[in-house]
């Protein structure tokens, strides 16, 4: 039987920290990979499909795995594969090998993502208070730390491979510290869960909102560096500052998010968050200089910060299907945004401009704001 207390809450935060570190390491490497392999925006967009495809292949079965074997085993195995694969992103010599590595990294991080969120739902529920924004805040801490550290190491002259290896070591250390207190046993309510349930009702709606939010976040991960270098003239060694600015703002928003959600309610947070994120995207597109574009990335981070935590809590609280399977389902639907987003942005950038593609993401955030009332209602489902 799992016992949930302060140690389990800390271990959950460390798992989110490790996932954020791993995920953010790719953003500063994108310009180097593009230059090394001589790819166009459209070709890079197609290659980036592999990252999302790997996640989508792994996520639907991860909820089942955690309901059978517990969160600890799934978190640690997926985390170990992530650490081993990250340096390969920096030295893959051909587009085919880079695509294969991106697929494997996507599968490992996708599995880690779902399993740690299943643990977060259980820990939050058993603790009797709002904790999800804080957990996701540690993911943002990892994102800021990883992107900033990568940018600093690359700026200082370290090779991309060595920089990625340093991040892998930090991920491994975080997982080692959290391992003893991850939940070893499956949730009692999930042990008899069916092997598969077709998502329906509130789960589908929550998944659509996750799709839009992850679409926006994935664009910052994969394309912010190129927007700053190609459109704003920022040096490639500093291109990771875009994702770092986004991650700092998201960290601040999520670390205070549990109090904000309790005070304002989910409806207002979704409404204000969507509007703020839209202003950020439009600002980054229209900014006349790189520093002002970075302000846009800050607004995106603040706006998006608490949207996904609210939706994950909603998926854990709904009664249409078992929580572990619901988490896997909405994460899969959400990460479909990461699968479709990079390719769509690449094609739009190739046919028109990268600025137009980012303007479309601002419209996606407006759709989240327009769905705030229904999103809040889904949270109570």
Automatic annotation (TrEMBL):
Major location (coarse): membrane
Membrane topology designation: Multi-pass membrane protein
Keyword Transmembrane helix: yes
Lineage: superkingdom: Bacteria
InterPro entries recorded: MFS, MFS_dom, MFS_trans_sf, MFS_Transporter
Keyword list, A-Z: Membrane, Transmembrane, Transmembrane helix
Keyword flag Lyase: no
Transmembrane intervals: 12-32, 44-66, 73-92, 98-123, 135-156, 162-183, 195-216, 236-257, 269-287, 293-313, 325-350, 356-376
Limits of the Major facilitator superfamily (MFS) profile domain: 202-381
PROSITE patterns: MFS
Protein name: MFS transporter
Organism of derivation: Duganella aceris
């Amino acid at each position: 039987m799992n016992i949930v207390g302060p140690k389990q809450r800390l271990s959950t935060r460390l798992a989110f920290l490790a996932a954020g570190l791993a995920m953010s390491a790719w953003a500063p490497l994108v310009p180097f990979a593009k230059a090394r392999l001589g790819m166009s925006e459209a070709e890079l967009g197609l290659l980036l499909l592999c990252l999302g495809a790997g996640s989508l292949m792994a996520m639907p079965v991860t909820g089942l795995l955690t309901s059978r074997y517990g969160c600890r085993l799934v978190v640690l195995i997926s985390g170990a594969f992530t650490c081993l694969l990250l340096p390969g992103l920096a030295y893959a010599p051909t587009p085919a090998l880079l695509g294969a590595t991106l697929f494997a990294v996507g599968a490992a991080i996708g599995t880690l993502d779902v399993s740690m969120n299943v643990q977060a739902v259980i820990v939050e529920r058993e603790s009797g208070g709002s904790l999800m924004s804080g957990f996701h805040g540690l993911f943002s801490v990892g994102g800021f730390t990883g992107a900033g550290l990568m940018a600093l190491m690359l700026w200082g002259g370290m090779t991309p491979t060595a920089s990625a290896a340093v991040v892998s070591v930090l991920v491994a250390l975080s997982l080692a510290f959290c391992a003893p207190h991850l939940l070893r046993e499956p949730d009692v309510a999930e042990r008899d869960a069916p092997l598969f349930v077709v998502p329906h009702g509130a789960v589908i709606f929550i998944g659509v909102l996750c799709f839009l939010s992850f679409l926006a976040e994935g664009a910052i991960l994969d394309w912010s560096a190129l927007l700053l270098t190609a459109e704003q003239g920022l040096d490639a060694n500093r291109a990771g500052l875009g994702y770092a600015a986004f991650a700092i703002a998201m960290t601040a928003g999520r670390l205070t998010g549990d109090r904000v959600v309790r005070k304002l309610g989910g409806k207002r947070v979704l409404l204000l968050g969507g509007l703020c994120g839209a202003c950020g995207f439009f600002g980054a597109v229209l900014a006349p200089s790189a520093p002002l574009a970075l302000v846009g990335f800050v607004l995106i981070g603040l706006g998006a910060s608490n949207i996904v935590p609210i939706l994950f809590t909603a998926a854990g609280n709904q009664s249409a299907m078992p929580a572990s399977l619901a988490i896997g389902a909405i994460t899969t639907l959400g990460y479909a945004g990461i699968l479709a987003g990079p390719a769509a942005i690449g094609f739009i950038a190739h046919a028109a401009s990268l600025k137009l593609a980012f303007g479309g993401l601002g419209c996606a955030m407006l759709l989240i704001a327009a769905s705030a009332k229904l999103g809040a209602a889904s949270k109570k489902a």
